[in-house]
Hints:
6-stranded mixed beta sheet
Amino acid sequence: SGAKTPDVKLVVMGRMGVGKSALVVRYLTRRFIWEYDPTLEFSYKHQTLVDDDVVSMEILDTAGQLYGDNRRQWEGHVRWGDGFLLVYSVTDKQSFHDVGRMKEFLDEAKKPRNVTAVILANKMDLKHERCISTDEGEKLAQELSCGYFEGSALLGDGVISEAIEELCREVRRRKMME
Length: 178
Ligand code: GDP
Ligand code: MG
């Protein structure tokens, strides 16, 4: 027994503007920041309790597009990470479609291993601008064999903590099986 300290490396992915930085900053500081430089890529070290175990993690908040000219950089991120948070905005159809492409990219890069990923549908507070339903989100998650979470960085409803904890659990479970 005793607290193990597994090293969990999380990568936050998603189309620009979906709220990756807002979610990560919300998680780490409990604050909501309206404007965050969309070109900034930053990694944060953090410790938290997951199921009574101390988990140390590093969270990489990515910037830029997966299918741009920086494919090399993405391959590095994907090799580095052992858990992936795939974020879309419920107000942005394109960001929803990007999730499928990101998962495909991850599956290809991590072959033959299974990819540990969860989907987070953000900006649930924008009810009038919403164009992706919960049903659509859950269906996609099922197709991609990912967990599904929905919420809002603005409201601070705890969805980011839930998603990150789930990723930590799953990463640790897989590491123990290896
Ligand atoms: P990133 O490019 O994915 O890192 O997106 P940002 O975190 O920079 O957020 C893009 C914009 O969406 C910013 O203006 C944020 O204030 C806004 N935003 C992020 N999350 C939410 C949310 O849950 N609700 C609302 N209404 N706006 C959000
Ligand atoms: Mg950002």
